[in-house]
Amino acid sequence: MTIKNLNFNSSNRVLVTGGAGFIGSNLCETLLENGNKVICLDNFATGKRENITPLLENQNFTLIEGDIRDLDTCHKACNSVDYVLHQAALGSVPRSINDPITSNDVNVSGFLNMLVAARDAKVKRFVFAASSSTYGDSTNMPKVEDIIGNPLSPYAITKYVNELYATIFSTTYGLETIGLRYFNVFGRKQDPNGAYAAVIPKFVMQLMNHESPVVNGDGSFSRDFTYIDNVIQMNIRAIASINKEAINTVYNVAYGERTDLKQLITLLKEYLGEFDPKIKDVETIYGPQRTGDVPHSLASINKAKTLLGYSPEYSIESGLKEAVNWYWKNLK
Ligand SMILES: NC(=O)c1ccc[n+]([C@@H]2O[C@H](COP(=O)([O-])OP(=O)(O)OC[C@H]3O[C@@H](n4cnc5c(N)ncnc54)[C@H](O)[C@@H]3O)[C@@H](O)[C@H]2O)c1
């Protein structure tokens, strides 16, 4: 992806934590393509070596294999860095319900280590992956940044605590921070396997194998599914912005439309059906609803548009076509 018209000086040193993961590896790739030096810190808890294998040949890319729960490692990674894009965390609501202690250690204590290291290294800005889960049980629609509800899972608590700590580091130590509340991101390199896989890659893999996708609930739950390139754009805008009003705050990162799971499966069958018409006949199975899932999620992206000039390039349809093409070429 090319960084267009974003007023971004491309000779920065950028630390991407979680850089071997889905979002992090896409960020590393774009930053390198645009001439930056990239340091990737990852412990491969959920990230994949193959996500960064092609990047290892690039002399502007440095891999630090390490854990954000270790403060010394965070200090080492932040050394001489201009910007931090902090993506490392244990994602997934069910994972945090099964093991809240590890989620808290990584997502809260690890986050705090990274803030301390970024502050000590005097980085120019600390941009971090927040989450739409922070809206919790709020029924307000679309979600606007300053109205949140009560968290519905340990994961949601960890992501909200990140925002609170970032604010304190801005006000107390003058560290510039921006939190990006991602809404159900999808696209190339997202892991389709494992118990905690996200719904789009999981359904794509099942459909490609002519297996029935299993929906939690009746398929009426909806999400503001967001294509990876829109997320990359927001990260770059967040580090490039020179608007002082745009920093030390949080933004929704989404497309601004919601799609329910039934509609999602219809679209996936249509796009995958172009490669293999039999996929159109695969039946869907509806199962029980999952604990901690919010029924509907839709973002207002007005704040990102106004303060950061965000203009999402990919709709759910155009993003899904790209994602499906990638999965068919790479994983079929
Ligand atoms: N994908 C989404 O829809 C979504 C939505 C909201 C928020 N987020 C957040 O975005 C970020 C990236 O998510 P993703 O979807 O790319 O997930 P991912 O699991 O693919 O990436 C997370 C990366 O962090 C690394 N990591 C985990 N624990 C670590 C540790 N202790 N030390 C160092 N590295 C560690 C993993 O190995 C992995 O490479 C996470 O903070 C996640 O909570 C993602």
TrEMBL record:
UniProt superkingdom: Bacteria
Alphabetical list of Pfam families matching this protein: Epimerase
Domain NAD-dependent epimerase/dehydratase: 14-254
Gene3D superfamilies the UniProt entry points to: NAD(P)-binding Rossmann-like Domain, UDP-galactose 4-epimerase, domain 1
Database matches in InterPro entries: Epimerase_deHydtase, NAD(P)-bd_dom_sf
Family statement: Belongs to the NAD(P)-dependent epimerase/dehydratase family.
PANTHER family reported in the protein's UniProt record: DTDP-D-GLUCOSE 4,6-DEHYDRATASE-RELATED
Protein name: UDP-N-acetylglucosamine 4-epimerase
Species of the source: Maribacter vaceletii
